Amino acid sequence: MLVFFTRRAVAAVVLLVAITALAFTLVYSSNNNIARNILGELATQEQIDALSAELGLDRPLVVQYLDWLVSAVQGDLGVSFVTGTPVVDSLAIRLPVTLSLVTVSLVVAALIAIVLGIVAAVRRGWVDRGVQIFSVAAESLPNFWVGLALVSTFAIGLAWFPATGYVPIDQSVTGWVSTITLPVIALALSCIASTAQQIRSAVIDVLKKDYVRTLRARGLPEGAILARNVLRNAAPPAVTVVSLQFIGMLSGAVLIERVFALPGLGSLAVNAAIQSDIPVVMGVLVVAAVIVVVVNLAVDLAVTWINPKARIQ
Amino acid sequence: MSDLLPGGEPAAGPPAARRGVVHRFLRNPLAVTAAAVVTAVVLVAVFADVVAPGSPVVSRLDMVNAAPGGEYLLGGDGAGRDVLSRLVHAGRLTLLGAFLTVVVAMSIGVVTGLVAAYFAGWFDTVAGWAANLVIVLPGTIVLVSLFAVIGPNILVSMAVLGIMFSPNFFRLVRNQVIAVKNELYVDAARVSGLGDARIIARHILYVVRAPIIILSATIAAAAIVVQAGLEFIGLGDPATPTWGGMLQDAFANLYTGRHLFLPPGLAIGITVACFILLANGVRDALEGDESGARRRPPRARTAAPAVPDDRATEHVPDDALLTVSGLVVGYRTRSDEVTEVVHGVDLRVERGRIVGLVGESGSGKTQTALSVLGLLPEGGEIRSGHVALDGEDLARLSPRQMRNVLGRRIGYIPQEPMSNLDPSFRIGWQLVQPMRRARGLSDSAARAEAESLLRRVGITDPPRVMSSYPHQISGGMAQRVLIAGAISCNPALLIADEPTTALDVTVQAEILDLIRDLQRERGLGVLLVTHNFGVVADVCDRVAVMRSGRIVEERATRDIFADPHHPYTITLLGSTIEGAPLRAPLDEEVAP
């Protein structure tokens, strides 16, 4: 298990280096554009060259990347081109907002989806059809549009919730709840839909297994078989599905933060992208990559731990 | 090979199913509607200039945020432009972007997938690694970041999205091709001298085309949503109307123009929903009748109470343990028709006797055995007839009552030992749990009992086996564990469904000996389902020969070997004697 963990951890680090290298290449390869975007359309070539030199953009890409990587490992992601604040500081303010939004949404969505998926798989009939209709509907409506509809109805129309803004949980719990409820609903909805579907099919797959029939033939109650054997065997695909949703939600959060004016990573990324604030863009990418890699690592370990075949080797 | 399949289910085989895919798709009203709507949306976008009532770009100050229903049917937007005209024109860039994403994803994914799977080697390794790398990235965040480089050019963004979606095609094609590559008909094509390119084109792309259609529709749906999102946060092309751009405008005018966010939202929602339904329709058509049967609740036993039948009470001798009479088993198909697989079977198993149920695969013998247990696969049900255990009709029991019969009065030995043990639980747990429930034993008493049972079925180190997981023991050992499980709650009747088919020849004989010994020791009645007359000769007192859902001949084993009556029995016996080693019929002493 320790060997397995070490191997996965090394692979995760390699993956992280690969992702950042790829991102760095894509983002920095057009160094001419970066300086021009910052200076505007009217800048002369001399001004552009001067700024490029000042920002170190005229050096070979490999040198720039290694320079960035060495600093990054030491916790220095550079300074914003636009505001001059250290990127790490901006990320440290923004990350908790996004993480709390995504984590709460994921927990809510996973709990509802697991219950719905199991009920649909076991009961079939109208529950099953209901879940399927709900799934198609929820997957078809973009989450930011759902957010707009929620704001329009519950914040502007009924005035139950504030339309925008964010109150950190350590300032006011009720404030945090009221600012995060609508975003969580908007973000969780499509996740519930697709996760419930996948959990449904995972449970149905297990219910069809020979060993479930044999357990029934031994006279064990249906509920006990479901609670122990079926859930245990459907857990690995379910964990994988939920983890993929987590990554999907990071993307979704970019739009939801915009709708509800939440000061998270997504809005930081959008503003930085529009202003060509490359160090910030790169910082957001790194944080996203780290989250993705850590989540995948955790899921790998969880799935391995659940599966005795892999655990015992 | 087909002997290993459980029972003769009526579902059509893959070749027949594939022929009807288009037909089945066309019979699904939801899928056809979805296809029609997608076509309509595409046509409206293409002929936007003709369809739209006005210009999508002309601004009129007097129409800023104008309410719907006036001169502008759906109202005016924040810049005084006609919402309806914009909606119609916006379909163009949206659909074009989605199309671009699908084309890029498909081109990269299908080509690399084919090459990786067909030629394997280093390319497969590198491509697989790259696919894993790309697929973990959160798409919107990457696209937002790349905006710093790409600028407001939505089509380039959508092409990049296509690259990010391409691993889906890569994995799909690669896995399908690997599955197909070693099929016999591909081998045959290779042997007959077809080149790789022709094999890929003719045989392999044929197999993957439907899954590719499904994935394309799914990706088109996802691409529309992603594109709308990018435009919504202001990373789109501001000059061209798009659904996402219209939502951005709606968001900017949320307080004054609340009519603005519904039309583009519905346009996106309906288009995306139709792409998803289209994909689902193709998938359902591919799956064929199977999914229709699945919709039925599994409680077929109670849903179809057995029709009273005079024959059941006609002659029930005292020593009859199990009496099956007039048993009809049917499966519901998607169109709610019932396909009968067992047409009125009569069968008797006495205490202390082993009755063989012999027939080729698909003859209905496993269906008969599973009916006795009340554990037919989904969609299957007892249409009529009786299954009486000690005179009590099992077909009329509630699921709860039936649970008290299973394990305690009927034990079940399955065919495939490895797939019948739960891979996630230790063997000890799987033996102990039914005993605790059915016999009310304490955990330690049940453990002690399980150990002695395992010793009895010939396992030398019971504690070690009990603490093992199924994957740690051999198939023969697993079958011994399952036999121990079958007798653990002291049933009077054993149902053994091809108990030796999946085992090595040497192990087969040992398992048969074990079943026979246990049967004598405990005075069990045994219904032994098999396709192998060698097994029958070895252990059975009486044999019922089954063909096409009917019993054609039922007699004492020695009689049937000495003088088979039915031509089918003669054929079966003939094929056995030529094909497999046959052990001599039992001596007199076996029969009590």
From TrEMBL, chain B:
Residues spanning the membrane: 30-52, 95-120, 140-165, 206-230, 260-279
Segments for region (Disordered): 288-312
Domain ABC transmembrane type-1: 91-279
InterPro entries tied to this protein: AAA+_ATPase, ABC_Ni/Peptide_Import, ABC_transporter-like_ATP-bd, ABC_transporter-like_CS, MetI-like, MetI-like_sf, OppC_N, P-loop_NTPase
Protein topology in the membrane: Multi-pass membrane protein; Peripheral membrane protein
Family of the protein in this entry: Belongs to the ABC transporter superfamily.
Protein name per UniProt: Dipeptide/oligopeptide/nickel ABC transporter permease/ATP-binding protein
UniProt organism field: Pseudonocardia nematodicida
